[in-house]
Amino acid sequence: MAHCFGRLFWYLEKGDGSMALWGGRFEAGVAEVTQEFGASLPVDKHLYKQDIAGSKAHAKMLAAQGIISAEDEQAIAKGLTGIEQDIDAGNFTFDINDEDIHMSIESELTRRIGEAGKRLHTARSRNDQVALDLRLYLRDACDALSAQVKELVLVLCQKAQEHAGTVMPGYTHLQRAQPITFGHHLMAYAEMFQRDLGRIADAKTRMDVCPLGSGALAGTTYPIDRAQSASLLGFSAVSQNSLDGVSDRDYCIELASALAILMMHLSRFSEEIVMWCSWEFKFIELDDAFSTGSSIMPQKKNPDIAELVRGKAGRVFGDVMTLLAVMKSLPLAYNKDMQEDKDAIFDAFDTVKLCLTAFIPMVDTMTVLPQNMRKAAAGGFINATDCADFLVGKGLPFRDAYKATGELVARCIREGLTLETLPLEAYREVCELFDEGVYEAISLEKCVSDRTPLGGPAPEKCTRAGRARAGFDAERRIKKETIYDKK
């Protein structure tokens, strides 16, 4: 039996006795498979806090505009608070027949407070409601994730200052190329993650628009105050088109893209950690708390966290593609396809959060092996460019200096020598401009310290960059024992 309540909505009593809030036109209940297939409650129940916050703001606005009474608004607010407390405490049972979080909460509210609960949905649709909830949820998620990324940047900056003078080989094509420092290498990742923070912040800024009041697609005839709703919920603006307000998921795609780039950076870093842990490099050793062993090979110490982070990057890439594929052919306005947005964007955030939670302490507690880095830097003729630059300083054109140095490297390879051990006479046979000063010029420490232009690996530049990027005092240290529980 259907009952009409003014300009509100119709309830439909289904064959199973439950009530469908969207009923009225329907004479029979939906099939069980339709109910189960269409239900989003298992996923969107995570939005309950945002849904309740949005409903409280909506009710307050309705009362301020005289659309509902102040008494009804107070009853709604009190009822919603009680529901939120029960969900927080685990004393709330979600019913799949309620279809989604919006209907679940509204049904329970009406059961608890009666007629006032039925007035809450005035001038609102689930279309603008879910758009609002998702923006609120992702706004908070952006803040939480950014805090993690900032912590990672801080750890990198601290490590970089500790190893601002630790010489290691820099690579191109995975071949030893030129001397740098480990601190400089870490700061490269700090720069990447800083840009990731910027992308998340930019996406959050564009997302900071309130869609509430867009209705199903065409707004409402009620005299609502959208600016008040937006202000109550902390938004900086309201959406300017009701169709766009309910059908826009650009912000999900943009955020997922930013998270995918972040995961790409984590994956690159993970790849290097995996290599650095190997006996072929042995530049670092991971703490036992962040490593695993083998069930058959007792000597193994595996960098599983780095490998898993590297693998999970593909999962977040897939989330971006899922969102793009869902949205690519949808006509305006809302379509049920968009229900799939939450699975993808929630998974992207959850995956990145999980990766950072394990990755940050792994990096912070790893042991750096400077002697192995210095030994690797001593091989591979990575000071050859500096040898050529020595001749340039004597007035020889760079291309001629390049050729002469190449001949010296070839001779060293034939005779099993290095540029540091090659006799001066051999240098002068190639170019008479060489003198004793070449040995100081090709010293690895000098090669690094002389690279003083902005962005270079000179230790003082690395230290300054670390302080500037992290924005912290050099003496400030995170107490690892208060952050990482190794038990």
Model description:
The protein is built from 21 helices and nine strands. It has helices spanning 32-38, 41-44, 48-64, 70-88, 101-113, 115-118, 126-162, 182-207, 226-232, 242-247, 250-277, 304-327, 341-365, 370-378, 384-393, 398-415, 424-430, 437-441, 444-449, 459-470, 480-483; strands at residues 3-4, 10-13, 19-20, 167-172, 175-181, 209-210, 237-238, 284-285, 367-368. The strands form four sheets. Strands 1-2-3 form a three-stranded antiparallel beta sheet, with no helix packed on it. β4 and β5 form a beta hairpin. α3 (48-64) packs antiparallel against α4 and α8 (182-207) packs parallel to α20 (459-470). The protein is elongated and about 100 Å long. The model is unreliable at 1-17 and 472-487 (pLDDT under 50).
